[in-house]
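User: Here's a structure from my thesis project, written as structure tokens. My advisor, Dr. K., wants to see whether a designed sequence matches the one we expressed. Can you design one independently, without my sequence as a hint?
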């Protein structure tokens, strides 16, 4: 088995999850990490036993690096992905793939012309409840899906934004709660529902209007082409990070996601279908436990020469939902 060399760009909070996954695989070696903060890059390199770079461009021509992980702020995803793809590397980027749909389509074109693949980190598709829900929809075992809802009530403090130079700004974050925290739930809703007919919604800044340019709260109604109706509510204005709640109503039963457990309500009885993974969670609890599953699957696709299924086209779908909400709402301003 030939060794695949990997690099991580951005040594912030999410990078350790990627490093742990890389180090867990046989035939994969973490070659280098890069960060604009030399001290942070050096610390990460020491932790992972690899090289450090202060400029990611130093890694563009490296033949010993096959896969690049982008763990950088949102506004850097597109330019970095474009450069690495054009250099022939495979790229796995944290969400969102870009700040908006037009730039995402540009990266989709670059990826199509590259020898490398582009993968998007929507790790919640690998959660056991998500897989079970999708199988239920596709099998038709509960009949037709009628409607569904997703609710995210989380907390982000003032310090979360003021201690970062890029969060809370349209130019660098691309939005607020929609594009950063709840994009995973919106992605699941569109993955479950299929092609979308219309999106309407609104955004507000309920708590942090003196701190951020973007929204901290949003709601939407998503109508799918199969007549399924999806409702969504998300906020960063709560005081805790509550587990995401979802409900999917079918002709012959209802699936409910509560505290990471999936239940079936049918014929007046509730049955537990899936429990949370019992292993310790790496990083923040609300990131879930499926980063490693997704990363290992991406490497498997690359090694086998198969196209990874969460590609640019899939990344664009979530951005289109967000764009639909923004376009039907008035952007908050200070």
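Assistant: Designed independently from the structure alone:
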């Amino acid at each position: 088995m030939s060794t695949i060399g990997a690099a991580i760009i951005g040594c912030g909070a999410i990078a350790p999850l990627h490093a742990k996954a890389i180090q867990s695989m046989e035939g994969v070696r973490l070659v280098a990490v890069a960060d604009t903060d030399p001290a942070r890059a050096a610390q990460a390199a020491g932790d992972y036993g690899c090289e450090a770079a202060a400029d990611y461009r130093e890694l563009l021509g490296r033949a010993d690096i096959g896969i690049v992980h982008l763990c950088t702020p949102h506004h850097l995803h597109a330019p970095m992905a474009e450069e690495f793809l054009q250099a022939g590397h495979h790229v796995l980027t944290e969400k969102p793939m870009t700040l908006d749909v037009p730039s995402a389509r540009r990266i989709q074109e670059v990826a199509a012309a590259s020898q490398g693949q582009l993968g998007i980190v929507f790790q919640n598709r690998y959660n056991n409840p998500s897989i079970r829900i999708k199988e239920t929809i596709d099998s038709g075992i509960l009949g037709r899906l009628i409607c569904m809802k997703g609710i995210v009530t989380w907390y982000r403090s003032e310090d979360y934004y003021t201690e970062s130079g890029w969060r809370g700004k349209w130019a660098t974050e691309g939005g607020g709660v929609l594009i950063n925290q709840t994009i995973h739930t919106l992605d699941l809703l569109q993955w479950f529902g299929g092609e979308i007919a219309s999106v309407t919604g609104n955004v507000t800044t309920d708590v942090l209007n003196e701190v951020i340019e973007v929204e901290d709260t949003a709601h939407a109604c998503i109508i799918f082409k199969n007549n399924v109706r999806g409702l969504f509510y998300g906020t960063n204005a709560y005081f805790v990070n509550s587990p995401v709640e979802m409900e999917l109503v079918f002709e012959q039963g209802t699936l409910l996601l509560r505290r990471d457990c999936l239940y079936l309500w049918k014929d007046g009885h509730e049955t537990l279908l899936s429990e949370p993974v019992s292993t310790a969670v790496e990083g923040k609890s609300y990131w879930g436990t499926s980063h490693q599953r997704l990363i290992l699957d991406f490497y498997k696709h690359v090694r086998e020469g198969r196209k990874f299924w969460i590609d640019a086209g899939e990344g664009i779908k979530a951005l289109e939902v967000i764009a639909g909400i923004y376009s039907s709402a008035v952007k908050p301003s200070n």
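When you compare it with your expressed construct, this may help: DSSP finds ten helices and 14 strands in the chain.
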